[in-house]
Amino acid sequence: MTKFSDLNLNPKVLKAVEEAGYETPTPIQAGAIPPALIGRDVLGIAQTGTGKTASFTLPMITLLARGRARARMPRSLVLCPTRELAAQVAENFDTYAKHVKLTKALLIGGVSFKEQDLLIDKGVDVLIATPGRLLDHFERGKLILNDVKVMVVDEADRMLDMGFIPDIERIFGLTPFTRQTLFFSATMAPEIERITNTFLSNPERIEVARQATTSENITQAVVKFKASRKDREGSEKRKLLRTLIDAEGEKLTNGIIFCNRKMDVDIVAKSLKKYGYDAAPIHGDLDQSQRTRTLDGFREGALKILVASDVAARGLDVPSVSHVFNYDVPSHAEDYVHRIGRTGRAGRDGTAIMICVPRDEKNLEDVERLVQNEIPRMDNPLSKGKPQDEAKAESAPSEAAETEKPKRSRSRSRRSDDKPKEAVQSTEETAAQPVQEQAAPKPKAESKPKRDEKPRESRGHDNSQKGRNDKRGRGRNDHRGGNQVVGLGDHTPEFIGLSFDDRRNAT
């Protein structure tokens, strides 16, 4: 069996590794460290939790042990997708380089530029940064990348998901083409493969596991959930989450709840705290000091439940996470592998439970297609305590609606003979009222000139259209008190046919 002592590492680095309690390298470490030490480019593909960070930190410290950095010109560069992962890489350098005199700087957002500028001005051997903040320093003229000898891209597939690929390509162009490149990713999307073909020179490819596989010591389950009403989905889903947490009992020592949206992270965390759970949120919109404080509390055991967006899904090393809850089915199937990879680390057993609403069915199919396995279904615990009829009504409201329709149709088609006498009498009375009301204005209508004295054919109009016009006219004029005579109609008074002289003689 290969040991760290067999990998030609610097003796001071080996001493730090032994003090950290490690003797045997993981497969990705055993495969990546030897070619990295001889200066070859490395392309490492391994699922999360396999020790990729040590795969590049240990050979980098050995290679940089000799030499000295100049002001504003770092000797090595490590790019990470998130602030938390960059901070974790910096901690690994502190652990493994404590017997070697190397300087480092951490360039991440949420921290003052002034403090970072002071470190860069002194000269650093290792520069650990997120792409955005690194380019900010470069554009301000505070950083020169012409002396970079080793460049590392960590979690490259996450870089792709977060839209950092254009920044990565630009940074590659700012560094010398003679650099050594160590490229690590959990999956190999076509875009990632294009970059490796462009910027890596004859790399040593190390693939220690099938892409996008889940650990065998993680117990997985998915709960199908459908709300009783659309406007109650959020509250009922949070109630289901609390029930799932309670059902785990003492087995849940700590856990991470993943949500797709930052807004849901805050809502779920606030709801859990309201019901007495020890929970706190972490996502990209929070202040960096608050994110660091929350993550440190979770690692130290002071915080039991961490509600997170995918900012915490990649690369965070918290070995003792017992449970992962997917409040939402991830939009990208690869994120499911990284989320549940937070539990079951270092050979421990873990549990991953996911809630799936009807609109997430397609995402669930994508996840199962990626992992090439069906995730076991779990009964909804909220349905167990309800009466059978109520649970059936919630699960199939359309069936309940259909059973009610015949009752209403039978009530409409009931014969008048079956009605009670009081109902028949009241119906006859209401039917007689409009007849009496219509009979009253008849004399008034007869006193006016009749419009229908001549045959309808002589008017030159369509009879059916005339009938419709009459009905519309009556409908419009009902509130004016009867039919109105508009114009002369078919009746012409005799005086209109007289001449002017005849009218004067008549007077």
From TrEMBL:
Residues spanned by motif Q motif: 2-30
SUPFAM superfamilies, A to Z: P-loop containing nucleoside triphosphate hydrolases (SSF52540)
Gene Ontology cellular-component annotations: cytosol
UniProt-recorded name of the protein: DEAD-box ATP-dependent RNA helicase RhpA
InterPro entries associated with the record: DEAD/DEAH_box_helicase_dom, DEAD/DEAH_RhlB, DEAD_box_RNA_helicase, Helicase_ATP-bd, Helicase_C-like, P-loop_NTPase, RNA-helicase_DEAD-box_CS, RNA_helicase_DEAD_Q_motif
Keyword entries, A-Z: ATP-binding, Cytoplasm, Helicase, Hydrolase, Nucleotide-binding
UniProt domain Helicase C-terminal: residue ranges: 244-386
Organism: Sulfitobacter mediterraneus
Enzyme class: hydrolase
Enzyme Commission no: 3.6.4.13
UniProt KW Hydrolase keyword: yes
Sequence ranges of Polar residues compositional bias: 424-436
Limits of the Helicase ATP-binding domain: 33-206
Residue span of region Disordered: 372-507
Reactions the enzyme catalyzes: ATP + H2O = ADP + phosphate + H(+)
Keyword S-adenosyl-L-methionine attached: no
Biased composition (Basic and acidic residues): 443-481
PROSITE patterns named among the record's database cross-references: DEAD_ATP_HELICASE, HELICASE_ATP_BIND_1, HELICASE_CTER, Q_MOTIF
Pfam family, one: DEAD
One GO BP: ribosome assembly
MF terms in GO: ATP binding; hydrolase activity; nucleic acid binding; RNA helicase activity
